[in-house]
Amino acid sequence: MPDTQLMDKLVSLAKRRGFIFQSSEIYGGVGSVWDYGPLGVELKKNLKERWWRSMVYERDDIEGLDAAILMHPRVWEASGHVEGFTDPLVDCRTCKARFRADQLDQGQCPQKPSKKPGEAEQCNLTEPRMFNLMFRTFMGPVEDDASVVYLRPETAQGIYVNYLNVMQAARQKPPFGIAQIGKAFRNEITPGNFIFRTREFEQMEMQFFVKPGEDERWFEEWKERRMQWHRDVGITPDKLRFHEHASEELAHYAKKAFDIEYEFPFGWQEFEGIHNRTDFDLKRHMEYSGKKLEYVDTATKERYVPYIIETSLGADRLALVVLVDAYREEEVEGEQRVVLGLKPAIAPIKAGVFPLVKKDGMPEVAQRICDDLRSRFPIFYDDGGSIGRRYRRQDEAGTPFGITVDGQTLEDQTVTVRDRDSLVQERVSADRLVGYLEERLTS
Ligand code: GAP
Q1: Which residue is closest in CA terms to ligand 1's atom 19?
Q2: Residue 203 Cα, ligand 1 centroid: separation in angstroms?
Q3: Is residue 104 included in any domain, yes or no?
Q4: What are phi and psi of 47, to 5 degrees?
């Protein structure tokens, strides 16, 4: 059974604490598009930086790229998206709702939610028709067929059309990879589940170019590496699993594909895909552009079109995994609290600073401590309400440390540091705080 209550609580916490807001809310919202607030933008940035570090900075065989969203329309003909990036769509003539014909068993009749679309007496579904998921727009002032361009539905193609540029400029040769983080757009028929399936989202994709014949070994290597990366982010291992695509599930470009799935409150679902795309994309771009996209080994004169192993992770879907996984409700000190148990390294705010007393020298001392820390980490200064309430607010925000500045601070320049999870409080000298936090924020 889907735990809709948990999702409702999470959506409400995300809004209350400033993680995620509905887009254009004052106009009634726009379907399945979301905005990231002050904490959400930090959380997503931390996840993206962690991914970029592991892909680009910690390896000498992967280079970074930031290709444009708008590309030559022939790219999408070559990639197969113009012809084949479609879902079957049905309309209900009675209630005007739209559904994916291949997912009716997962849907709900809006008029009779206990029934699936098409099952209730009043349902009157049309025959399925194919619907292309790419957003189309026009380049330049004239809106005709010759000026059609698409918002990219995946970031991968920007890497393929640049692969020779990057390989030559960075003096790489296979096996090597190109990593990119950027927006992608899909006009999904049935978006939903908060930020799980949206029409505008971000992808973190890495394309690894290898010699044909070495592809299967590299596929296994990347599959295991990516799973380990998610464990290292702190996601509960029991809630992660692989799902291998059966032949009828495979995308048009893939020879083999594994999803990394998470057990969401609405069931097991994919949030990263690892694909063996063979030489499909590069060969198609050779055919459509007329350009040679081979790798030529100058020493051995060997030439080949590389195979591509792709790792494709949604930044928003990963943020949802991390939020769902971190959410917990518990009783402490006789009170109910909601906590986001985020790993310190990805938490949006690293510490809250709470002045406790109104005495001479306060709040200046607390402000000074806060300013010292601010130049190193995102810090939140809070002097409003009881200390219990201040702790609770930061627990909900996932802030790992709470620093209280009290009467004793004025006498001996020490503060109390409270650990969000263990609730242990330690007295630490104010001038050691930066080092104390640094040690604990790397994990
Ligand atoms: N380049 C390959 C590719 O795009 P995909 O399985 O279609 O493969 C990869 O997408 C990842 O992108 C998914 O696992 C998911 O995390 C994210 N993603 C795809 N469609 C999405 C959507 N409508 N909303 C949010 N994330 C999406």
Answers
A1: 314
A2: 7
A3: no
A4: -65, -40
Test site for ligand 1: of 264, 312, 313, most ligand atoms within 8 A of the Cβ: 312
pLDDT digits (tens, 9 = 90+) for 316-366: 999 999 999 999 999 987 889 999 999 999 999 999 999 997 777 788 999
What integer pLDDT is reported at residue 2 of this predicted model? 66
Can you give the pLDDT at residue 106?
Answer: 83
pLDDT(31) > 90: no
Whether residue 443 is predicted with pLDDT greater than 80 in this model: the reply is no
Residue 329 domain-assigned (yes or no): no
Within 10 A of 125 (CB to CB), how many other CB atoms are there?
A: 16
Tell how far the Cα of 359 is from the centroid of ligand 1, in angstroms. 55
**Which of 393, 329, 399, 401 is CA-nearest to residue 17?**
393
272 shares a domain with 361 = no
My answer on whether 209 and 294 are in the same domain is yes
The answer on 41 and 174 residing in a single domain is yes
**Domain count of the chain?**
2
Q: Residues 6 or more apart from 340 whose CB is under 8 A from it?
A: 13, 323, 326, 327, 347, 395, 396, 397, 398
pLDDT at 190: 85
| C-alpha 413 – ligand 1 centre gap (Å) | 51
Q: Is the CB of 157 under 6 A from ligand 1?
A: no
For 42, phi and psi rounded to 5 degrees?
A: -70, -45
C-beta of residue 340 within 8 angstroms of C-beta of residue 326: yes
Cα(281) to centroid(ligand 1), Å: 18
Work out the pLDDT band at 304, boundaries 50, 70, 90.
very high
Which ligand 1 atom lies nearest to the CA of residue 312?
A: 9
Residues 387-404, mean pLDDT to the nearest whole number: 96
Mean pLDDT of 189-207: 95
Range of the domain at 396: 349-441
Determine whether the shortest distance from the Cβ of 281 to ligand 1 is under 6 A.
Answer: no
